[in-house]
Design brief:
Blueprint (H helix, E strand, L loop, with lengths): L1 H26 L3 H36 L7 H40 L9 H46 L13 E3 L14 E3 H8 L2 H72 L1
Antiparallel strand pairs: 1-2
Length: 284
């Protein structure tokens, strides 16, 4: 009976130790950085994936309907191809950068939680945290521009779609005025003014709106714009987290310096007291 009781006690202690270990591990997870990383990955994935496919669909629409001469949209095709390569680079960079920021969140959380233990922050660690704050700020400003730029094709496709809806409306359907409703893509500056035909009217424009390329490109550009907005929110979230962690590390370094000075003074006081006792004993 005593042996069974001892075994139950050991098992309960092991379970308690495992539970405490799990709680300690979960307490060291930077949940804010984890949420920001997931949001950043999701936003960048939506922007890059949907943007890449939408750009390819846009080129197909231009070549088939608005610019039949290849030389008229050759520059635009090169720019779109370059943007697709840039999208590859953006996806790779932010995948790596998100992992680095998540690792920095783990480091900072451990530094703050284990301030009173053997773990100590260093000047290099605080400098790296400050560098991430600056870099994330710059990337946030840049992605604000990307978000605004991604709204331009949404605006263009919306204008084309709304014109098609006007053509389909009962007020204009079946009348001669339908052929007077046109969309001139040259006014947006993406193809030159001498591009042929450049302008589509009436039923031909309605047929364009009914194609899969137009439908998919329009909605993919909307999703890509939403992904860019999500990335901006994630970078702002990261910026708040990094600023807060940097402030914590700065306070932690001051606390560590204070504790080191205090421990040194206490040690010197003990040494003085021990020498005084030795001298007193020698006199007596």
């Amino acid at each position: 009976m005593e042996t069974a009781a001892e075994e139950n006690t050991e098992q309960s202690q092991e379970r308690k130790g495992c539970f405490e270990c799990c709680i300690k591990c979960l307490g060291g997870v930077p949940y804010a950085s984890l949420v920001a990383t997931i949001l950043c990955f999701s936003g960048v994935a939506l922007f890059c994936g949907c943007g890449h496919v939408a750009l390819a669909g846009t080129v197909a629409i231009l070549e088939q309907h608005f610019s039949t001469n290849t030389s008229d949209h050759a520059l635009l095709s090169e720019v779109i191809q370059l943007m697709q390569y840039v999208i590859y680079g953006i996806a790779s960079f932010f995948f790596l950068y998100g992992i680095i920021l998540l690792a920095e969140g783990f480091y900072t959380t451990s530094a703050v939680k284990e301030l009173h233990g053997e773990f100590k922050t260093t000047a290099c660690g605080r400098c790296i945290s400050g560098m991430f704050v600056f870099l994330t700020y710059v990337l946030g400003v840049a992605w604000l521009g990307v978000f605004g730029f991604s709204a331009v094709p949404v605006f263009m496709f919306y204008n084309i779609w709304s014109t098609c809806e006007v053509i389909k409306s009962p007020q204009t359907n079946g009348t001669a005025g339908v052929e007077q409703i046109c969309v001139d893509i040259r006014q947006y500056g993406i193809i030159p003014w001498n591009a042929f035909p450049g302008r589509i009217c009436g039923s031909a424009l309605e047929n364009i709106c009914n194609t899969n390329e137009f439908y998919m490109s329009y909605h993919l550009f909307i999703v890509a714009c939403a992904g860019a907005g999500a990335t901006v929110i994630a970078l702002i979230h990261f910026l708040m987290i990094l600023s807060s962690n940097w402030a914590y590390l700065k306070d932690a370094s001051k606390m560590q310096a204070y504790q080191d000075i205090k421990a040194k003074e206490e040690q010197e006081l003990q040494d003085i007291q021990s020498r005084s006792k030795e001298q007193l004993n020698s006199y007596t």
